[in-house]
C-alpha cells in the first residue's frame, strides 16, 4: 500500500481489524472500529489520535492500541458516558446502541486526546491466557512419548508471563478434562469437535496428570508486571470488553500470578535463548504464541539457530521440545497452528485454533 495516502492507509488497517473483531466475536469493537475508520478519513479526533502511525506496519496494530487506550479510560472511571456500553464497566452493548456508543467513544477520544496519544506509544500486548490450551496440548504430547521428566519452561515474547503456569489451569471439552478442578483459570469448550484420541488418553494417564514444572522463565522486550496496578490495567485494557470468558480467564491468571512467581527478562528472543542450556534429568521446553510476526527476520534467523543447537543436544535424559502456536500460510489461508518438535525430530502439526486459543480443533 505504498502508493496509498497515509490517512487512507490507516483507515484501511482499522477496517481490517474491525472485520477481524467481527469474526472473533466482538460486535462492540466491530462497530467502534468501523466508526474509527470513517473518523480518520474525515480528519476527526481519531485521525489526531493515530497521527504519526499511519505508515506503521501491520504488527504495530494501531487499531488495538487506540481501543486499548480508550478501554483503559473506561476501566479507570474516566469515561463514564462510554462505560454504559462496556460490559467490563457494568454496561451493555447491543447493535441498536451502536450509533450512541460510537458518539460516546469519539467524544472520549476528543476529550482525552493527550492521554490517548501517550498510550499509543506502547506496543499492544494481549497476554492471551486461552493460548495455554495449545501449550498444554503440546506438553501432553511430548511427555507421553517417554517417561515424564520435570519440565523447564521457557517462553519467548512472554508479556506478563501468565502462560508460564499452564499446568495450573483447568481445560475441558466434551469427553476431555485436564488440570486442577478448583483452578481459578477455566478454559471451557477447549475443543471444537472431538479432541484427538491421543489427547484424551493422555489426560486420563496418571503420569500425565502429574506434570511437574520446576523452572519458569520468559523474555519480552517490554515485559508487564502483572502484580502492579499499571500492569494489570494494561492487560485488562487489551482484552476486548464484550468477551466475558477471556476476562474471567485473565482475572484467574492474575490470581495465580500473585501466588506462583515467574521471571520475565527484558531482552530479545535470540539473546534469551543463547543463555538456555539443557540439564540432565529434565525436559527443556521452549514455547511461543502469536509473537513471531513481531520479530525482525534477522533476529528470527538467530532464534532458529539457537533452537537447532538445543535440538541437536537433546537426549532422553536431557530432553528438548519446541512448541509453537503461530499463524502459517496454508494455501490461501493463514490458520494459527500448533506445532511440536521433539529433540531433532521433524516438526509436526497437532492442531489449529482461533487466535485466542479457544477452541482448538484437530488437523
Describe this structure in words.
This protein is of the alpha/beta class and 363 residues long. A hairpin with a 6-residue loop joins strand 10 (348-353) and strand 11 (360-362). The model has no long low-confidence stretch (mean pLDDT 94). The chain has 13 helices and 11 strands.
What is the gist of this entry?
By secondary structure, the protein is an alpha/beta fold. The protein contains 13 helices and eleven strands.
Helix content: 40-55%
For the largest beta-sheet, the strand count, sense and barrel status come to: 8 strands, mixed
* C-alpha geometry: globular
**Main sheet strand line-up:** 6-5-1-7-8-9-10-11
Taking pLDDT < 50 over at least 5 consecutive residues as the criterion, the unreliable ranges are: none
Structural class: alpha/beta
Amino acid at each position: 500500500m505504498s502508493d496509498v495516502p497515509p490517512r487512507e492507509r490507516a483507515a484501511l488497517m482499522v477496517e481490517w481489524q474491525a472485520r477481524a473483531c467481527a469474526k472473533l466475536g466482538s460486535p462492540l469493537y466491530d462497530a467502534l472500529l468501523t466508526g474509527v475508520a470513517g473518523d480518520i478519513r474525515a480528519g476527526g479526533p481519531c485521525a489526531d489520535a493515530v497521527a504519526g502511525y499511519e505508515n506503521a506496519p501491520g504488527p504495530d496494530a494501531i487499531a488495538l492500541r487506540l481501543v486499548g487506550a480508550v478501554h483503559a479510560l473506561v476501566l479507570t472511571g474516566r469515561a463514564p458516558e462510554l462505560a454504559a456500553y462496556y460490559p467490563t464497566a457494568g454496561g451493555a452493548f447491543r447493535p441498536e446502541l451502536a450509533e450512541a456508543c460510537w458518539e460516546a467513544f469519539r467524544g472520549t477520544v476528543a476529550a482525552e486526546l493527550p492521554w490517548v496519544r501517550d498510550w499509543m506509544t506502547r506496543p499492544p500486548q494481549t497476554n492471551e491466557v486461552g493460548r495455554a490450551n495449545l501449550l498444554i496440548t503440546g506438553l501432553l504430547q511430548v511427555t507421553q512419548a517417554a517417561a515424564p521428566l520435570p519440565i523447564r519452561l521457557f517462553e519467548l515474547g512472554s508479556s506478563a508471563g501468565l502462560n508460564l503456569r499452564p499446568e495450573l489451569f483447568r481445560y475441558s471439552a466434551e469427553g476431555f478434562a485436564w488440570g486442577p478442578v478448583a483452578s481459578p483459570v477455566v478454559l471451557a469448550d477447549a475443543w471444537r469437535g472431538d479432541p484427538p484420541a491421543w489427547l484424551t488418553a493422555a489426560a486420563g494417564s496418571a503420569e500425565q496428570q502429574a506434570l511437574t514444572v520446576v523452572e519458569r522463565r520468559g523474555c519480552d522486550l517490554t515485559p508487564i508486571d502483572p502484580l502492579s496496578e499499571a500492569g494489570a490495567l494494561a492487560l485488562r485494557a487489551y482484552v476486548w470488553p464484550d468477551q466475558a470468558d477471556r476476562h474471567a480467564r485473565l482475572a484467574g491468571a492474575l490470581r495465580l500470578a500473585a501466588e506462583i512467581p515467574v521471571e520475565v527478562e527484558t531482552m530479545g528472543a535470540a539473546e534469551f535463548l543463547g543463555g538456555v542450556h539443557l540439564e540432565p534429568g529434565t525436559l527443556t521446553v521452549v514455547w511461543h504464541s502469536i509473537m513471531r510476526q513481531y520479530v525482525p527476520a534477522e533476529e528470527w534467523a538467530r532464534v532458529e539457530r539457537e533452537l537447532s543447537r538445543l535440538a541437536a543436544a537433546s537426549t532422553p535424559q536431557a530432553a528438548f521440545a519446541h512448541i509453537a502456536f503461530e499463524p502459517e500460510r496454508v494455501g490461501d489461508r493463514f490458520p494459527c497452528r500448533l506445532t511440536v518438535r521433539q529433540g531433532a525430530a521433524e516438526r509436526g502439526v497437532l492442531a489449529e485454533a482461533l487466535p485466542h486459543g479457544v477452541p482448538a480443533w484437530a488437523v
